[in-house]
Amino acid sequence: MTTIPAPLRQRLTEGFGAPLERSWHATGGSINQAAAIEVGGERFFLKWNRDAPRGFFAAEVHGLQTLRAADAIRVPDTLEWEDQDGDCPAWLLMELIETPAARVDRQAFGRQLGEQLAALHQSVSPGDTFGLDRDNFIGALPQANPSATSWVAFLRDHRIGAQLDLARERGALRPDAIAQVERLMARLPDLLPDDDTPALLHGDLWSGNYMIGPGGAPVLIDPAVYRGHREIELAFTELFGGFPASMYEAYEAVWPLDPGYPERRLLYQVYPLLVHVNLFGGSYVKELKRAVAPYI
Ligand code: ADP
């Protein structure tokens, strides 16, 4: 059995009215611990965290439910969740996504993901602004989502600026790097075209946050949802790679990108790189500086 903390196991046993029969370790989580579990012959996916801020899993549930409501890409159903309570860590119980046993055609999978991602991005209503109806988290870091009509102001203040403030507080960046990011922030109105079209974003779309689900269909997990400019999401997918080329082709077939996007790709990687500097430090500082340099 995977070592699910005893107080959590007890909490689940009470909740289910039956003991856990089996559990398996999941891999890949950088923030939480996770396991697949089996109770009463049914399988579930369980995440837990001893250091989660209050409302951490509630924010993840809200994000998953927001994506689900868009009805564009499958996400796991969320079942139960609680904040940390004494010895019992914060936890979230959700639907287990079973990965197919048979080999999956990656290019076909990519095409489906591209089409569905474009549909997700298009799931906004007239009058929607940037932001979301609640704040949430990216990894373990706070992500504010106030309503804004200007993308430049939203990106500057609530994405790049907020993470830069955190880096300053934590001493994660030296003054020269801080000054470079500040210069970039001041130049944003010149660097970005006047395009205030919001898109519904997963918000943390690196290759660890999609799964190949039943039937080889895409499933998104672990989001940091908000309405932002879609180019920041695509740039995020390109930061560490791991997405099939067919995804981009299929995306563009549904909703072509502006021809100027490649010039902004690095700029849009600054926010996720700042998040990585704040979460993991070290090597990401160099990458951050490399992303900022062409624009200042
Ligand atoms: P973290 O919040 O720690 O980053 P994730 O939500 O990304 O954790 O999950 C870690 C790993 O567990 C994923 O890479 C994926 O392989 C697996 N996983 C996540 N959610 C599910 C699920 N609902 N069903 C099955 N496996 C899952």
Task: Describe the protein's topology.
Layout: H1 6-16, E1 20-25, E2 33-39, E3 42-49, H2 56-70, E4 78-82, E5 90-95, H3 106-121, E6 136-138, E7 141-143, H4 151-170, H5 175-191, E8 199-201, E9 210-212, E10 218-220, E11 226-228, H6 230-240, H7 245-254, H8 261-268, H9 270-280, H10 284-292
Antiparallel strand pairs: 1-2, 2-3, 3-5, 4-5, 6-7, 8-11, 9-10
Helix pairs in contact: 3-7, 4-5, 4-9, 6-8, 9-10
The structure holds adenosine-5'-diphosphate (ADP).
What does this structure look like?
This protein has 296 residues and is of the alpha+beta class. The protein has 2 domains: 6-95, Phosphorylase Kinase, domain 1; 106-295, Aminoglycoside 3'-phosphotransferase, Chain: A, domain 2. 43% of the residues lie in helices and 17% in strands. It has helices at 6-16, 56-70, 106-121, 151-170, 175-191, 230-240, 245-254, 261-268, 270-280, 284-292, and strands at residues 20-25, 33-39, 42-49, 78-82, 90-95, 136-138, 141-143, 199-201, 210-212, 218-220, 226-228. The strands form 4 sheets. It has a 5-stranded antiparallel β-sheet with strand order 1-2-3-5-4. Strands 6-7 form a two-stranded antiparallel sheet. Strands 8-11 form a two-stranded antiparallel sheet. β2 and β3 form a beta hairpin. The chain is globular, with a radius of gyration of 20 Å. The termini are far apart. The model has no long low-confidence stretch (mean pLDDT 95). Bound molecules: adenosine-5'-diphosphate. The site of adenosine-5'-diphosphate (ADP) has 18 residues, from β5.
